[in-house]
Design the sequence.
């Protein structure tokens, strides 16, 4: 993350995980408490050090029901009495130390460790200068996605994500940089923050939940990712893959995530990847993208003479592409020409 920049009070705030361009630095502690209450109701905050030097900035994004807050602040003491929602904090810069009601202390730091607080958690956190991503989690949705990621075999039902106690979480388990993965997702949010419908269609919320599941139990998910499907795992039949492809073809214009495919088939992402690679030589998402592009090409080639380029935007949306520019780029990569050229050549 880039070095902090000076504030009006002479201090410096680090960059936000997303929303930096539209963020405004504020020096009112009550404003900070009110904004953070959206994700942590009942918050009690106090400035550490000179109150005249307090500063913060934040940006909120809601994607398909997932509430995200990017915030940066000067040193604070933050207390909360009974967290209402499961909350995950991922620091991008700075350090913090939390003390739970039972006296257990835990430290978390940018690029190293995050912190998970289940509903009902109480305690206080002492922060330095920091920049943090805060996620309000739907535990039912998280549990469902985690189970789907592991497949529908009896051995994998009811996966224990250890959601009952507050704890710190390693952002680089076994050398896998989950912290960087969250940074990349935040970069996408930053790119499309003015078009939340694009973020929702891209399934950013689903990707966030999937990474949270891995962050909570890395020993389960990372071990699976390194191995081929185990003997007790349910093997996908050719009929199951055909039925999935038929369903995908019938819903090309809709938002479709990997979790949707897992739910549809009862198979894990890994099993689906192996099945699609064996049958089609590509991943499920690559197959879906190719089918969407093929449908768009048929529509462009069948357009009436004199059709304007604005039709390209309509067709891109109809075929499941939320961003027309991304559609045009993918189309050119696949067919060697822009959609406008296909539209013009058909006359």
Sequence:
């Amino acid at each position: 993350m880039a070095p902090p920049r000076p504030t009006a009070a002479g201090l410096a705030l680090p960059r936000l995980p997303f929303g930096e361009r539209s963020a405004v630095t504020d020096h009112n502690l009550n404003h900070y408490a009110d904004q953070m209450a959206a994700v942590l109701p009942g918050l009690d905050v106090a400035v550490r050090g000179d109150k005249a030097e307090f500063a913060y900035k934040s940006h909120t994004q809601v994607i398909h029901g997932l509430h995200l807050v990017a915030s940066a602040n000067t040193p604070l003491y933050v207390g909360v009495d009974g967290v209402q929602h499961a909350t995950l904090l991922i620091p991008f810069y700075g350090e913090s130390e939390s003390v739970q009601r039972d006296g257990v202390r835990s430290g978390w730091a940018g690029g190293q460790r995050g912190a998970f607080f289940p509903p009902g958690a109480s305690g206080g956190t002492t922060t330095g200068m920091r920049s943090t991503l805060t996620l309000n989690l739907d535990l039912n949705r998280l549990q469902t996605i985690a189970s789907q990621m592991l497949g529908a075999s009896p051995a994998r039902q009811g996966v224990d994500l250890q959601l009952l106690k507050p704890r710190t979480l390693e952002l680089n388990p076994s050398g896998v940089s989950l912290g960087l993965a969250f940074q990349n997702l935040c970069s996408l949010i930053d790119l499309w923050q003015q078009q939340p419908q694009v973020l929702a269609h891209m399934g950013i919320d689903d990707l966030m939940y999937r990474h949270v599941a891995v962050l909570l139990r890395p020993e389960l998910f990372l071990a699976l990712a390194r191995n081929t499907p185990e003997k007790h795992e349910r093997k996908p039949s050719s009929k199951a893959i055909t039925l999935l492809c038929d369903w995908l073809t019938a819903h090309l214009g809709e938002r479709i995530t990997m979790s949707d495919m897992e739910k549809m088939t009862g198979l894990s992402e890994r099993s689906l990847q192996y099945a699609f690679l064996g049958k089609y030589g590509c991943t499920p998402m690559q197959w879906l993208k190719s089918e969407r592009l093929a449908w768009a090409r048929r529509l462009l080639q069948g357009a009436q003479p004199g059709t304007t380029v604005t039709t390209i935007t309509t067709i891109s949306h109809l075929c499941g592409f939320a961003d027309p520019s991304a559609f045009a780029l993918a189309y050119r990569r696949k067919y060697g020409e822009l959609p406008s050229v296909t539209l013009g050549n058909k006359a």
About this structure: The chain has a mean pLDDT of 87.
